[in-house]
Design goal:
The chain is of the alpha/beta class. The protein folds into two domains: 149 residues, Response regulator (Rossmann fold); 133 residues, 3-Layer(aba) Sandwich (Rossmann fold). Helix content is 47%, strand content 20%. The strands form two sheets. The chain has a seven-stranded mixed sheet with strand order 7-6-8-9-10-12-13, sandwiched between helices. A six-stranded parallel sheet has the order 2-1-3-4-5-11, with helices on both faces. Helix 2 crosses helix 11, helix 6 runs parallel beside helix 7 and helix 8 packs across helix 9. The N terminus is likely disordered.
């Protein structure tokens, strides 16, 4: 037996196995350490079992690394997945990559941070659909909660946004302003970015508390930042004077709520976001609809509710 003839094909087979992917779908998130995205991942994993599809998960080292995420999408395109679900680091960071995926016949579904559809169309790209929270409605729920807590007395309110230009930040802020700016006894004194960063949100809040000593409430558009805001309020000895309302109801935020520090957080349902996103993607892979840049992507909203120390609202 000629062993040389056996070894070469075996080496080629191993090499080919390493290059090829074993999954039907690639899921590219902002993070695989943040609790919110881990919940999206779990929702996708559970739904993939029900649908009998295989999924590979990827994320950049940091959610502030659009180039790293772009490389992951390009790698997924080159590996020939049938579909890609993605949560972009910004609304425009992946539009050209999505268009490239479409050109290769790969369907794309958008979860969480919404892709800028006009920009996507301008480069010839399309997505099957988008699933996530109705962030305007979420912000409105936060605003209504603050209004109810402040009552007839009202007072000054501040908002801590995420990074400028981010869909989730802008829409949540818009929703809160829809409510707060239309209540006569409430004055939104400032709305400033915390860049999704706990330390920066703490520093920004500390400055706001000094500038507005009569501040009564702060709405924060995610819980990474809200925990920094709570720390700033604690440092100023104003836990009993300033209401802090966060977003996401992350595990650490829920602990803070139970301690009576963070007053409330708007909970999303990230597992449902993941499951519904995978549903749309698998449906497209199996039924092969035409990719049309002019078609309006399907929007599948996921419900939200307020988490408080006394229960959910």
């Amino acid at each position: 037996m000629n062993l040389r003839k056996l070894v070469l094909p075996l080496a080629l087979l191993i090499s080919a196995t390493n290059v090829a992917h074993a999954a039907d779908v690639a899921v590219i998130l902002k993070s695989l350490s943040d609790p919110f995205f881990l919940s999206i991942k779990k929702g996708i994993e559970d739904e993939s079992k029900r649908l009998d599809v295989s999924v590979d998960f990827f994320a950049p080292a940091s959610d502030a690394d659009p180039q790293g995420q772009l490389r992951l999408v390009e790698d997924a395109i080159n590996k020939g997945y049938k579909g890609i679900a993605l949560a972009p680091t910004s609304p425009v960071s992946l539009v050209r990559a999505i268009a490239k995926a479409n050109q290769k016949g790969i369907y794309v579904v958008n979860v969480d941070e919404k892709v800028d559809i006009p920009q996507l169309r301008s480069v010839g790209g399309s997505i099957i659909g988008y699933t996530g929270t109705d962030n305007v409605l979420l912000g409105e729920k936060a605003g209504n909660y603050i209004v109810k807590q402040l009552g007839e007395v009202g007072g000054e309110v501040a908002i801590i946004e995420g990074k400028p230009g981010y869909f989730a930040s802008e829409t949540r802020t818009k929703g809160a302003m829809n409510i707060l700016s239309n209540v006569k006894n409430i004055n939104v004194v400032t709305s400033q970015p915390g860049d999704w960063d706990r330390v920066k949100a703490m520093d920004v809040s500390a400055n706001i508390l000094q500038r507005y000593p009569n501040l009564k409430a702060i709405y924060v558009v995610n819980d990474v930042m809200s925990l920094g805001v709570v720390q700033a309020v604690k440092n100023a000895n104003k836990l009993d004077q300033v209401i802090v309302v966060g977003t996401d109801a992350a595990p650490e935020a829920r602990v803070s709520i139970k301690r009576g520090e963070l007053n409330a957080s708007l909970a999303q349902d990230p597992e449902a976001i993941g499951a519904k996103g995978l549903d749309m993607l698998v449906d497209a892979i199996r039924n092969k609809p035409k990719m049309d840049i002019n078609a309006e992507p399907k929007f599948v909203p996921v419900n939200t509710y307020v988490v408080t120390r006394d229960g959910n609202i």
